[in-house]
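Revision sheet: structure tokens.
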Amino acid sequence: MKAMERESLCLTLEQTDISDFPASPPITAYLSVVGQTLHVRAERSGTIAADITFEFDLPKACINSAIVKLVADVPDDFEYTPWNQPELSTATIFHKDPFEVVPEFKTTFSSPKSYWIKAFRKMLRDKLNVDARDEAEISSLNKS
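Predicted:
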């Protein structure tokens, strides 16, 4: 049985330190690989005067590294409130600053279901040959 191909993955762009980022995170992000480039289409809709859609690319040559943090899935019946926010599985991409002002930028994507972060890690590995290391693995290496 052949694996099903997805056009894009839907995650949340949780945070970034890109200086001229056109919207404040969190924002819904659709990620796909086009050639040797991670393409991100971000959009926020259904808000009062804050709807926005924009796109940006992270070429493979600009991706320095990636780290994945997997946690338990958020239950479907979880009640979100400003005081009750769950811990989410994340994938953080470290990428070059095109103007070389800072060594690199950090952009973090999240999902309440670890499956989608695992799918993103597989997309990075299989389509861009970028190995996203597990945060727990890195922590254990730093302790030894």
